[in-house]
Amino acid sequence: MIPYTELRRKWRTLPAKGDGDREAYLTHYLQSKGTEHSRYFIKQAFEHLGEMGLEPKDIRKIRQVAWDIPFPPPARPMFSFIDLFCGIGGFRTAFQTLGGRCMFSSDIDYYAKQTYEFNFGEVPFGDISKVKEDEVPQHDILLAGFPCQAFSIAGRRAGFQDTRGILFFEVARIIKKKKPKAIVLENVKGLLSHNKGETVKTIIDTLRNKLGYYVPEPKVLNAKDFGLAQNRERVFIVGFHKSTGVKDFEYPTSWSEKKVFKDIREEQEVSSKYYLSTSYLESLRQHRERHANKGNGFGFQIIPNDSIANAVLVGGMGRERNLVVDKRLKDFEPKTNIKGKVNREGIRKMTPREWARLQGFPDKFQIPVSDAQAYKQFGNSVAVNAVKAVGKAVVDRLEF
Known about the structure:
CATH class of the largest domain: Alpha Beta
Distance between the termini: 32 Å
Number of domains: 3
Shape: globular
CATH architecture of the largest domain: 3-Layer(aba) Sandwich
Order of helices and strands: EHHHHEEHEHEHHEHEEEEHEEEHHH
Number of helices: 13
Largest sheet: 7 strands, mixed
Radius of gyration: 22 Å
Oligomer: single chain
Strand content: 5-15%
């Protein structure tokens, strides 16, 4: 057996080539080897394996890869899915747990793809608009957390006039060709109100009337209702192809388990690099006061141990709205260049691991990137528990 991480080291020594999808073909072939889906990747994969100095006869001797990664593909899957706009794998984490096997993944973000590969042993393909429908394997369920910036309240709300909104039609293009049994889409709550509801109406009309899917009304679900210590509302859209005969569907409402920040807090003392400097803390307080004087509620926020976090977000005040008090710090020596000193009030940012837990990622999920990238990746991800709840309802309805 060849350890997957050994193969990874070999191809990382090769010079960059072509469109950057060499590793995607290699890893997708390895994941699908032994199934009919390998035909989508085998030609390019063998070419790239040859670049590593392996002869075709040697390559064909590879019978098994030792998946020394946190989340290897299931040996006996119940169903198959593809993971579009996959990010770091929130959808995949949920659906592999439900017994599914991923046949194809795609994302354009370089660092997100790196995190995805470290955890799942698969490098996603790049720009979905450049992927031909015929190159996507057949699958049972299509998953897509298509970009939300074009629809969010915080964004420009350009909707379909924004290329990120048009990416929905890239999803529709693949649905039309592959006709999966079911689809699961996730987006920000603001999608429902954008352009007075016309945007979501167009999406649903496309799925129902142009693609032939039964699509119940979208549902807004909150992460806090599914065992996560985070107030995060997102809209889900599911659909079932007419060939399945499914004509009714009930979204899950909640799990009985409720969690608060102390349930996901770091077990050990946290590095001083996560603690705010006295200068920065003072500037935050002044900033909040200025806005308060104008009648605005903008500003940083400290989350009590027995409360839930605000939604983790990318940029802006995403981290500052989720500060906590942790007085376990003993070493106040700054680990980074800061103005002032490390504050003695115990006020710190949540760590990337805490953000991972807020989103429902298991502790064995690897974070191979910088803190800045990690915050961005978890802020952009889906709430795994909510996705899993929706996914279970879909899988149960299909009766695999």
